[in-house]
Write a structure and sequence with these properties.
alpha/beta, Rossmann fold, Helix Hairpins, Heat Shock Protein 90, 13 helices, binds adenosine-5'-diphosphate
Length: 432
């Protein structure tokens, strides 16, 4: 049995500055209640879902919260319990509103922390006064015995709902994994299928480039030379992209298999620097690298390490305007080596610094996508760093970036760190 403990019957007009948050998913009720309370002088804000209601409550700190019990996500009771756990809402009147008139519903709402309980349909004429009374301190109460029973019923309800939500999430998760695998298999299969004819095309185009008949033809027609060279370099670029996709799908499915052997990191990095020498020259960039500093006796997969470092250096070139500097340093300590690749480029926003290592994550606008590997701003598919991470982690190492943020004018630069064991162990499998 419930009763009102404060029966003050105020006759003063509702103040105009007080805010009521109304949480309700039914548009008809939203309109009706909002109109009635606004007309009575309250500032009314409305949320349609429980989580949205919590966010709005935290943002606006309303003077009263009126919440429907049956919401699409959290129930009004759960929302009330959640808000009561926040010291900012310990004393805020929270009034539950429901069409349910089953026995025990009122007690359950109070057990969850509600101040009061109203049933639908709302009496629009009485509602403003009811709100005013709750704001002035009126509270509903129930006997201790009824409260204990309601608490038990409420706890059971929450646990049952939690269990069904966990089951639902697990099912969704399994389905997402299944779809993700289908997508990975599809990407891998497509890349394989494309690689075979592309390899043939590459061979034919090289033949065309080298053959004596075509040499004669090209001598008589410089245009033909340009066409053939353009064809070869486009095919090379296409194979590069397909190889990236194949490696990244191996990274994703944990199939980076290392072919470990004696590795001279100084030479590996020297090759990478050589690879970009022409691009750096044409962009008036300086790549600083002191070979003597770099370890020569490592155990690693030299080819995959070259690919990883090449991706980071390539990015440093792509995301640094002309006249920039790229500084490559290695510091050996004990059985690890810390490689640092620092540039004077546009930098990376704090929020992106983790995500850039995810597959297909690029901060470039896709509509501005360029296929150049070395032009300023030239972008790829957002695979380069995912590949790097897969390779470095397969070696038992770690890769991360530090930057003061992205600024295309001030150029704060980025520093990539690669921490590698001097002696990588066995064939390590990794997942991304
Ligand atoms: P992409 O093919 O887009 O270059 P990556 O995986 O290599 O893909 O890089 C992901 C994103 O990380 C890039 O789109 C770029 O925004 C950012 N990034 C990587 N390296 C740098 C860098 N040195 N300076 C600034 N941004 C960088």
């Amino acid at each position: 049995m419930t009763q009102l403990t404060d029966t003050r019957n105020s006759t003063t007009k509702p103040p105009t500055t007080e805010t009521i948050l109304y949480i309700e998913d039914d548009p008809g009720s939203q309109l009706l209640v909002k109109r009635a309370l606004s007309f009575a002088g309250y500032n009314v804000i409305v949320a349609s879902r429980g989580l949205e209601g919590i966010d709005m409550a935290i943002k606006h700190l309303p003077d009263l919260i009126l919440t429907d019990i049956n919401l699409p996500d959290l129930s009004g009771r759960e929302l009330t319990t959640r808000l009561r756990s926040d010291s900012r809402f310990r004393t805020t009147p929270i009034v539950a509103l429901t069409a349910l008139s089953q026995a025990g519903e009122r007690e359950k709402a109070l057990a969850a922390g509600a101040t009061g309980y109203l049933t639908k349909p709302v009496d629009i004429d009485k509602l403003p006064k009811q709100m005013e009374r709750f704001m002035k301190g009126e509270k509903e109460s129930v006997s201790q015995e009824a409260l204990v029973t309601a608490h038990q019923a409420y706890n059971q309800e929450v646990v049952t709902r939690l269990e069904s939500k966990v089951r639902e999430l697990e099912e969704n998760n399994a389905e997402l994994r299944r779809l993700d695998k289908i997508k990975d298999d599809f990407i891998q299969l497509t890349a394989h299928e494309l690689r075979t004819p592309l390899t043939l095309m590459y061979g034919y185009s090289r033949l065309l480039q080298e053959s004596s008949i075509s040499k004669q033809l090209r001598d008589s027609s410089p245009e033909l030379q340009t066409v053939i060279n353009g064809m070869v370099s486009s095919i090379e670029r296409m194979s590069g992209v397909i190889n990236e996709i194949l490696i990244v799908s191996r990274v994703a499915t944990g199939r980076v298999e290392l072919s470990l052997g004696p590795t001279n990191l100084a030479e590996v990095v020297e090759r990478v620097v050589g690879e970009y020498a022409e691009a750096a020259k044409s962009r008036k960039m300086h790549i600083s690298f002191n070979k003597a500093q770099w370890p020569v006796n490592m155990r690693a997969d030299a080819e995959l390490l070259r690919l990883a470092i090449s991706n980071v250096v390539g990015n440093a070139i792509k995301y640094t305007p002309d006249n920039g500097i790229i500084n490559m340093v290695a510091r050996t300590s004990g059985n690890t080596v810390l490689v640092t690749i620092q540039d004077t480029g546009v930098g990376i926003a704090k929020d992106d610094q983790q995500r850039i290592f995810d597959r297909f994550y690029t901060t470039n606008k896709t509509q501005l996508h360029s296929t150049s590997k070395t032009n300023f701003g030239g972008g790829g598919l957002g695979l380069g760093l995912a590949i790097c991470r897969g390779i470095i982690e397969a070696h038992g190492g770690r890769i991360w970036v530090e930057s003061d943020g992205r600024d295309d004018i001030k150029l704060p630069g980025s520093t990539f760190y690669i921490d590698l064991p001097m002696q990588a162990h066995g064939t390590v499998r990794t997942g991304a």
